[in-house]
């Protein structure tokens, strides 16, 4: 029945870099789109880009059925698709029970007098995980200084108060499942809400996981010196963090010099070659006093077999990793450094750090609810800081490109980062400042958590040489997969072993849900290469929502 070409007015505007983001709806008399060509034209009308539309599998998009909030009678539905490889979400939906005969001031077809209130006529993804109240819905979901949802919504309503809407929004985020989708009234109030969930048929929610115990950390250090009778110039400091809440996880790291130059951990094939281990003994005098590798039931396989270092051309090494050893009873134990041939060359006794640097991390802005905690210790009087911490309410099921499993995630600048920043306040990006270091090369460039659980929980452990030595009062920041800053806290304490100021305060374990679904994986000491990008001319993703109950999605990659 459509007799006039509806595509004549379908146009884009481009920015200074030649990029465009567009979203609109029209009637074309059919919804037979699968396999059709989607074409992009240049300014002169020539065809410059093309892609073939393919149906999106139902389980790959999100839907929300929106029910009324408060005294409102508004309801609705929305279908949404996060555009792969970007921070953009495209969505199409409808609302009913709204105020009739509205015409928004931002309408592209007939700008009217309505929807001028803050959030007036808005259709937005919010940062919370529940529609129960404004507190659980939270604010608009985005990362960055500018709110992309500020003027986004339905352009008009019919005489019976029905509206349709379609848009594509870049949010700085990439995970939208279980986020509230909210419709606002003309006056900006929230009138309908629903949680975005998988759109496919017969998709059952995962069985609830067992609650986890949120980590609580204590810190220990040891000064490494040559083992008596061994002719070696080895020296250094190691730091060990224990998770007193789970009673099994330890993070270890440090800086040691005087080793054989140019060693690669992968080439140290001798038993205990290039090893760095906590031993069961309480002395360094000889092998009997040092004992063997320290681990206990329920850990039945020696976790220290793969704990190794690589050394540089000067015979120096910096290492950091975490593992489960069945116990966190490390105070007074021997920390032993092995040579390439597996012989023991250095040893130190672990003593407790009474006042490590600590930070409770709180969410930044209203667009996320990430939280966490971190403990940190400066390595001796060097410029190296070792830290161990956790974060929760992150994007779930991530696997970083720099992890041991080399996943597809965290490729954005600062993606999944855990960094000390130069600022002394978490109030804004200006007061947080940039990464804290001195020198030409940023040591924080590819540093962060390696993965998240299915519930968005991550742990991390590292040792970083920054060229600086004063860390107290600095901002510690956790970044999202897209690189946005999502949680921040100020490092407080002395952070300088050894301590002599009495017993350290302990934090009672806190049981919380959601849980983590995997143990912390040990990291490697090998250098990590940044991801590469291949240029292939102009590329883009296009999402088309079919207005038949808003459940059909097609997408095309343009090249």
Q: What can you see in these coordinates?
A:
This protein is mainly beta and 559 residues long. The chain contains three helices and 30 strands. Residues 201-207, 496-539 and 545-552 have low confidence and may be disordered. It has helices at residues 134-137, 287-290, 429-432, and strands at residues 37-41, 47-52, 54-55, 62-68, 75-82, 88-96, 123-125, 163-170, 180-184, 190-195, 197-198, 212-214, 217-226, 235-243, 249-257, 276-279, 317-324, 334-338, 344-349, 351-352, 357-363, 371-378, 384-392, 418-421, 458-465, 475-479, 485-490, 510-512, 540-546, 552-558.
Figure out the total of helices. 3
The number of E-state strands comes to 30
Uncertain runs with pLDDT below 50, 5 residues or more?
Answer: 201-207, 496-539, 545-552
Radius of gyration: 28 Å
Helical content stands at under 10%
Largest sheet: 8 strands, antiparallel
Mean pLDDT: 85
- The amount of beta strand, in percent, is 25-35%
User: What is the general shape?
Assistant: elongated
End-to-end span in angstroms?
32 Å
Structural class: mainly beta
Outline the secondary-structure elements.
Elements lengths: L36 E5 L5 E6 L1 E2 L6 E7 L6 E8 L5 E9 L26 E3 L8 H4 L25 E8 L9 E5 L5 E6 L1 E2 L13 E3 L2 E10 L8 E9 L5 E9 L18 E4 L7 H4 L26 E8 L9 E5 L5 E6 L1 E2 L4 E7 L7 E8 L5 E9 L25 E4 L7 H4 L25 E8 L9 E5 L5 E6 L19 E3 L27 E7 L5 E7 L1
Antiparallel strand pairs: 1-2, 3-30, 4-5, 4-10, 4-11, 5-6, 6-8, 7-9, 9-10, 12-28, 13-14, 13-19, 13-20, 14-15, 15-17, 16-18, 18-19, 21-22, 21-27, 22-23, 23-25, 24-26, 26-27, 29-30
């Amino acid at each position: 029945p459509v007799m006039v070409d509806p595509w004549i007015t379908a146009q884009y505007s481009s920015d200074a870099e030649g990029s465009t983001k567009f979203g609109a709806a029209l009637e074309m008399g059919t919804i037979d789109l699968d396999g059709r060509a989607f074409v992009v034209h240049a300014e002169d009308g020539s065809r410059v880009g093309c892609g073939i539309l393919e149906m999106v599998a139902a389980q790959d998009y999100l839907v929300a059925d929106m029910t009324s909030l408060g005294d409102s009678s508004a309801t609705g539905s929305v279908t949404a698709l996060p555009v792969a490889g970007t921070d953009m979400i495209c969505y199409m939906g409808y609302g009913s029970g709204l105020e009739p005969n509205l015409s928004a001031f931002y309408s592209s077809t007939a700008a009217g007098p309505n929807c001028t209130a803050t959030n007036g006529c808005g259709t937005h993804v919010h940062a919370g995980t529940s529609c129960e109240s404004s507190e659980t819905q939270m604010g608009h979901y985005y990362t960055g200084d500018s709110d992309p949802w500020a003027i986004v919504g339905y352009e008009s309503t019919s005489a019976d108060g029905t509206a349709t809407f379609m848009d594509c929004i870049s949010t700085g985020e990439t995970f939208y499942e279980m986020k509230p989708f909210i419709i606002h009234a003309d006056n900006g109030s929230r009138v309908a809400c629903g949680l975005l969930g998988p759109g496919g048929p017969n998709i059952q929610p995962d069985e609830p996981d067992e609650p986890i115990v949120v980590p609580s950390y204590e810190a220990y250090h040891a000064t490494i010196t040559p083992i008596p009778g061994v002719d070696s110039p080895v020296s250094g400091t190691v730091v060990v963090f224990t998770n007193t809440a789970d009673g099994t996880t330890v993070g270890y790291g440090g800086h040691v010099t005087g080793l054989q130059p140019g060693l690669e951990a992968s080439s140290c094939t001798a038993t205990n070659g290039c090893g760095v281990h906590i031993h069961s003994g309480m002395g360094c005098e000889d092998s009997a006093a040092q004992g063997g590798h320290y681990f206990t039931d329920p850990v039945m396989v020696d976790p220290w077999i793969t704990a190794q270092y690589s050394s540089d051309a000067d015979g120096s090494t910096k290492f950091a990793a975490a593992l489960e050893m069945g116990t966190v009873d490390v105070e007074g134990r021997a920390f032993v450094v092995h040579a390439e041939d597996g012989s023991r060359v250095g040893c130190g006794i672990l003593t407790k750090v009474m006042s490590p640097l600590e930070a409770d991390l709180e969410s930044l802005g209203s667009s996320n609810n990430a939280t966490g905690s971190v403990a940190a210790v400066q390595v001796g009087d060097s410029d190296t800081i070792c830290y161990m911490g956790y974060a929760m309410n992150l994007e779930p099921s991530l696997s970083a490109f720099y992890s041991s499993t080399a996943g597809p995630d965290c490729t954005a600048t600062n993606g999944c980062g855990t960094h000390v920043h130069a600022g002394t306040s978490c109030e804004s990006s200006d007061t947080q400042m940039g990464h804290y270091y001195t020198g030409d090369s940023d040591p924080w460039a590819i540093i962060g958590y390696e993965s998240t659980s299915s519930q968005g929980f991550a742990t991390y452990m590292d040792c970083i040489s920054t060229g600086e030595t004063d860390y107290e009062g600095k901002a510690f920041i956790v970044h999202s997969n897209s690189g946005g800053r999502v949680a921040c806290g100020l490092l407080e304490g002395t952070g300088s072993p050894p301590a002599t100021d009495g017993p350290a305060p302990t934090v009672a374990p806190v049981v919380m849900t959601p849980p983590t679904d995997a143990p912390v994986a040990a990291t490697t000491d090998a250098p990590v290469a940044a991801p590469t990008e291949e240029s292939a001319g102009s590329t883009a993703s296009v999402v088309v929502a079919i207005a038949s109950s808003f459940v059909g999605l097609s997408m095309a990659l343009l090249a």
